[in-house]
Amino acid sequence: MTSNKPSLTVFCGSRHGQDQVHIDDAAAFGHWLGEQSWHLVYGGGNVGLMGEIARAALQSGAEVTGIIPESLMKREVGLEGLSRLEVVSDMAVRKQALIDLGDAFVVLPGGLGTLDEFFEVATLLQLGYHRKPIVIMNRNGFWDPLLALVKQQVSAGFVSQKELDAWHVVDSLQALQSCCLALLGSRKTA
Prior knowledge:
190 residues, alpha/beta, seven-stranded parallel beta sheet
């Protein structure tokens, strides 16, 4: 990003899920981003946790950039009133833009798309294509099965412990905020 503001790319569900705490966390984190005068980059949708975080961030004065493929524009209805909404040709272009625009990545609860985005940035970090932090919000153990799988891959010799250790796993909104401040708080927010 050319801005002095820290820019967080958030990967999260296009559905709300069944646990109200995830909805509340997404909205509260969006408000917090606005209070910090940080920049939110996300998938551009008006639905699910994506819509919750983006609306809250906008309401609190954050700059919000959405990246959405043409095919999902109708399905997810791109959120109106964003600082910037980029409609791109496909999911691969979307992912690359989300990766390029963020200074760090935050993974909130979500489905297969969230997993796809997470594994893309985790793999690129492993291969040295970026050095951007990855923060996983593991409220109520949502990502425990994923973390257990990767720990099994470490035990089996397919993943090194340093790759797993590179991820910042937090289990509360306060820990998420503290982690983001520790990772990006030294940047100017002018």
